[in-house]
Amino acid sequence: MTTSTIIDPWAVSESGFPADGRPADKLTYALNYAVLAPSGHNTQPWLFQVKKDQVDLFADPTQALPVVDPNDRELIISCGAALFNLRAALRYFGYTADASILPDAKRVDLLARVKLGHSHKATAEEVALFQAITKRRTNRSAYENRPLPEALLEELKMAATQEGAWLEVVENEDIRNATADLIAEGDRIQWSDAQFRRELASWTHPNRNLRRDGIPGYAMGVADTAAYAGPLIIRTFDLGNGQAAKDRDLALGSPALVVLGTDKDDAAAWLATGQALQRILLRARASSVWASYLNQPIEVPELRPRFARVVGHVGHPQLCLRLGYGPDVRPTPRRHVSDVVIESWG
Ligand SMILES: Cc1cc2nc3c(=O)[nH]c(=O)nc-3n(C[C@H](O)[C@H](O)[C@H](O)COP(=O)(O)O)c2cc1C
């Protein structure tokens, strides 16, 4: 099977969709949108196998983050986000896209199977979500002091529910303060761990580099010269206090602070979280709203139950996001579809 050769994955254009091609060509083209999903440390931990009219999504264990994500929870969430993009692209291009989640109990790395379904006319909302795929980025800058419309927050809650997750908007000041304190505590715990710093450093790159995964310094707001020293500084110094103060301020100053969670805490729930995450991020971006992550109190195991009590929602917090308006930022690199498609053996 041939895979697409778009030079910059972000430059993908809908005009290249092979409307008269074989089902496998259509599915492969839609993968150009799947690979634009967000992922922890930009690891892009997904692999795909296209067979006739179906595509299998696999976890890529070589892109795991054993220190910050020892159970592959965020890895599977990231794959769920890619799955949502794939479904959104297929629906935009005129097909229903039924996904079976964890379709083979004997293959734990097979996360989902998507079939190119029958013809379908995309709704206005589906068009808006699809068009936001290439405009979404994680935006780590401080946001303007401008509240999000209540109606949008309601839409984001509905987006989570549609994918089998829940979204709690932190409105109470005591809960916001307690959340900000836990984020800061999480930063201090993570940065005091040399293994955490080493792992983060290995996925942080200078601004000018040829890697197609990992986080370039500019995505963290670091200028070209400083970004060269970034990985060494991260590996060597415990910057926990400074990071804690910065993240505490960001959490307290966020126009909206939200927690995405699920009732259960297993692979199916993590895939639901990823799909809900991407639906939320795209709905937000379609409304000119950016998002960034403050996941520390969920990533640090001893803080997660405390954070769950603070949030006060039955179930398991999976991600903590801040949302707001702000300046545009550059996209981060992506592996090409040809790098993440496993050729079919049979
Ligand atoms: C499951 C998950 C967890 C993430 N956790 C964090 C985080 O804790 N801190 C952060 O700054 N970014 C986090 N990110 C954002 C990624 O670093 C980002 O998606 C990746 O670098 C690609 O950049 P992009 O989102 O701009 O395309 C997370 C993303 C995902 C999907």
Fold and architecture overview:
The protein is of the alpha+beta class and 346 residues long. The protein has 2 domains: 9-137, 3-Layer(aba) Sandwich (NADH Oxidase); 150-324, NADH Oxidase (3-Layer(aba) Sandwich), CATH 3.40.109.10. The protein has 12 helices and 10 strands. The protein has helices spanning 23-34, 73-92, 124-132, 150-162, 173-191, 194-202, 224-236, 240-253, 267-286, 296-299, 304-311, 337-340, and strands at 46-51, 54-59, 95-101, 110-119, 166-169, 204-205, 215-216, 256-262, 290-293, 316-324. It has a 4-stranded antiparallel beta sheet, covered by helices on one side. The protein has a 4-stranded antiparallel beta sheet with strand order 5-8-10-9, sandwiched between helices. A hairpin with a 2-residue loop joins strand 1 and strand 2. Helix 4 (150-162) packs antiparallel against helix 9. The structure holds flavin mononucleotide (FMN). Flavin mononucleotide is lined by residues 38-42, 74, 77-78, 81, 137-138, 140, 215, 219, 293, 295, 332.
